[in-house]
Amino acid sequence: MDGEANLDRRLTAVGADGYVSADDVIFLRGEIFPDGIRARDELRSIFALGERAPDGDPEWPEFFAEACADFFLNEEKPSGYVTNGDFAALKALVTRDGRNASPLELKTLVRLLEKAVAAPNEMTDFVADQIRAQFATSAGRAIGASDASLIRTFLYASGGSGTIGITREEAELLFDLHDATAGLENSDEWRELFVKAIAAHLMQYIGYRPVAREEALRLNAWTTDHSVRPGRFLRAMFDGGFSAIASSYRRERRWSDKNGEDEIGAEIAQMVTAREADWLADRIARNGIVDDAEKALLAYMSTLGADLPPKLASMVEEVSPAATG
Predict the structure, then answer these.
(1) Alpha carbon distances (Å) from 279 to 276, 286, 311
(2) pLDDT attached to residue 176
(3) What is the b/e burial string over 217-256, where b = at least 16 CB atoms within 10 angstroms of the residue's CB?
(4) Separation between Cα atoms, residue 38 and residue 43, nearest integer Å
């Protein structure tokens, strides 16, 4: 603990005013952590600094996330893996004294998921809960462009917990965030992400199904073609228009056919299942308001050519003219 106390003394002058400047980051990189974070006492010290000085120039959250993520990914061999022990230690740091992750810590959690070869499923669930808490416990906080970017990165990084598509749990998270910030000035980036991600989730129920992530990575064609990656699959959907969502699933279908690993055909229903349609209708109607983002989603649903179950079909018919008019 003497080493940790000495490190804390050296860090005392940094962030004394609650702000870590770009010059402070240069000092941290060059004088305090020239080789990165290499020990648990150093990790605890930088978390203490983050608690003392949560704000700073853009270089500060970037350094914090990079240094902490690299520590966990390189602590044990083989590198790149987050073990159950790693996650337990990180969770204990983040939730100390019963608190939720700060924005600084949340960026670190997402960065770690993004860079990890593999991480415990419990970590993905934990990070989703921490994202949810950012807005559920902060009355009046809208989802800005940077928030949307972080959420988007989380969706890329989680990889659908085994699939390349958007899972029900991830879709629930997006609706929870949407409802928690209803009526606020959310960014256009968030509205676009919300609509496209929910649409991508529903595509799995109208005749297209993404290949399992672990299966895809096992196929030789996937491991040798670097353009075929789970993150890029989602980026292709989110970066393009609505047509990109359907075309991404169609491309996935062709890759699957080529490798003979996933026989997509008659066994996949050519309509949205009643269960999934009812879920969507219930989520949209939960707070009694159908806002512009939800109208845009329903308008998109009307273009899919699927035989929608009654509850959702009625909602689409009622709302989509207002969304497209």
Answers:
(1) 5, 10, 10
(2) 95
(3) eebeebeeeeebbbeebbbbbbeeebebbbebbeebbebb
(4) 8
Q: Is 60:18 a contact under the CB 8 Å cutoff?
A: no
First to last CA, the chain: 67
Q: State how far Cα 283 lies from the chain centre.
A: 20
Residue 136 confidence class, pLDDT cut points 50, 70, 90: confident
Amino acid (1-letter code) at residue 62: E
Which residues does residue 20 pair with via DSSP β-bridges, in sequence order?
A: 56
Contact indicator for 160, 170 with CB cutoff of 8 Å: yes
Residue with tokens 């997006």: 174
> Burial, 107: exposed, middle or buried (Cβ in 10 Å; 0-12, 13-18, 19+)?
buried
Rounded distance, CA 173 to CA 45, Å? Answer: 32
Confidence at residue 269, expressed as pLDDT on a 0 to 100 scale = 39
Strand, helix or coil at 55? strand
Query: Worst-scoring range by mean pLDDT, 37-51, 63-77, 174-188, 240-254?
Result: 240-254
Task: With CA atoms as reference, report the closest residue to 102 among 138, 140, 58.
Answer: 138
pLDDT at 92 over 50: yes
pTM, two decimals, is 0.77
The pLDDT of residue 208 is 46
Digit-coded pLDDT (tens) for 267-303:
333 456 778 888 988 998 887 888 889 988 888 877 7
Q: Which residues pair with 19 in a beta bridge?
A: 55
171-219 pLDDT, tens digit per residue, is 999 999 999 998 899 999 999 999 988 988 887 665 444 444 444 444 4
Q: What are the helix (H) ranges across the chain?
A: 2-11, 22-27, 40-52, 59-74, 84-94, 103-115, 121-136, 145-158, 168-180, 188-203, 213-218, 220-224, 230-239, 242-259, 274-285, 292-301, 310-324
Q: Is the separation of the CB atoms in 69 and 43 below 8 Å?
A: no
Q: Which helix (H) or strand (E) holds 305?
A: none
Assigned token pair, 148: 């949307």
